[in-house]
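Protein modeling request. Please complete all fields; requests missing the sequence field cannot be processed.
Requester role: graduate student
Desired output: 3D structure, C-alpha cell encoding
Chains: 1
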Amino acid sequence: MTQTFQRFVIFAEMRTGSNLLEATLNALKRVTCFGEAFNPYMMGWPDKDELKGITKAERDEDPHRLLAAIFDKPNHLPGFRYFHDHDPRVFDAIMDDRACAKIILTRNPVDSYVSTALARATNQWKLNETETPIPAAARFEPEEFRQVASEVEEFQLRIQHRLQVTGQSAFWLGYEDLRDTGVMTGLLHWMGRTDLEKVAPASDQVPQNPRELSEKVSNFQEMQTALSELDPFMLRRIPNFEPRRGPAVPSFLAAEAGKGLVFMPIKGGPGDRISAWLRQIGEVTGDLNQNSLRQWKRDHTGHRSFTVLRHPLRRAWSAFEALLQGGNAELRDLMRQVHRVALPREEDLPDLTDSRRAELFETFLDFLRRNVNGQTSLPTHPGWASQAEVLSGFSRFGAPDMVLRESDLEREIGWLASSVGIRQAPALPQATERFPEFLNDQKLRGAAKRTYLRDYVAYGFGGQP
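Delivered output (465 residues):
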C-alpha cells in the first residue's frame, strides 16, 4: 500500500552517496532536501551560517526550532540528511514522527572509509563530469576503521530497534541503488508522490574513484590482514537470551561510615558477610528506593558504591543448596516433574551422599544453562541470574564505582574503606559457607562455564573456584 508522508529524513554516513541522493530529490518539484541540517560544524552545507532564517547559534541553542522550520512547508516534501554524529537532541522527535519517511542509505563500510580518506587527502568531495579527479592513495588505519564502523553499526541498530518498537518501516537503499531509475521512482512512490511517473537519478555527479581498492589503498596488504581479524558476522559473540533485570535498589545497603558506602549485593554472593562488616563500621540504612538513595548520595559527597563478584561455580552451588533447603518444596517438585533435575523424595534429602549431590548438582547446572538462556518456563531467579546481567540491571540506576571479588576481599576491603576516609576498618568476618571438594571436578567446572560463559569471559574467571 502506498504511504503518504509529509516529510522525510535520510539516515546516512559520509561517502555513502547521500549527496547524489539529495541532488536527485532536489531536482523534483515540491521536494527539498536541506543538506546536513544538524551537522554540528555547518548549517546544511559547507560555508553556510544560516538555514531557513535560523543562525547556527540559534540552532545550537534550540535544534527543534530549526526542525520545525524545515518541516513547515505545506504541499511540499521537505527533509534533510542525518548522520550518527549529528545533533542527538532531534533524534527522538524524528523517530517518533510517523509522518516523517525514514530513508536508510548504506554502503560497504570499507568503501566508505577509503572514500572518506581520499576526499580528505585531496579535499575533493564532489566530482562532476567536467572535473578531473585528483589521483591519490589513502592509508588504511585499522584502529580508526574499527572505531568508525562500530559507531555506525551501533547507530543503525538503534534506528532499527526504534522502528521495530514503534511499528514503523523504512526504505532501505544501497549505494548501488542511487543510479537506478526504477529504485528512485519506487522511493518517491513509497513516499506518496505517485504523480511522478519516472524519477531519473541526478546526472551532475560522477563517481570519484572507480578504481579497485588495491589501487586506492597504499597499505592494501596490511588492510587485508586487519580486516581478516574482524568478526563481521559476530561468530564469536556469546548468545544472550537472558531477561533484562532491574536495578534492585531495595536490596542496597547504605553505611554512614566515613564519606559513606553503598553496598549493591548480588544475590547468591557473600552478602551476609559484607552486611555484617558494614554494621561493624557504622549505622546502616536499608529498604531504600531510587528517590531516597539519590537523596542519600546527594548528602554524602565522596561516597563509594561497590559490589562483590563470586566465582560462578560457587554461586551456582549456593543456589543449589538454597534449593535443597527451606520452604521450597513446590519448586523442588517442579524440578523433578518438569525440569529434569531428579531430586529424591523430601524425606530423603538430608541423607544425600557427596557423590549423589555431585550428580544432582550437574543436572542442576544443565537446568541453569537452559534457564538463563530463556529455554524454560521458570523466570530467572536473581540468585542464579548471570552476574553480568545483574550488573547491567544495577547500571540502569547507577553502576557501582568498584567491583570487588570474593577471592580477594581480605585485601580489597581495606582499600575500599580507606577510599572513603575510614582509617582503621575492622577485619572482615570469617566466611561461614563451606564448599565441597568435589566442586573441583572437571565435569562440574566445564558445566559451570557453559552455563555462565558471559561471566567467565566478562570477568576473567578461571576454572578453579
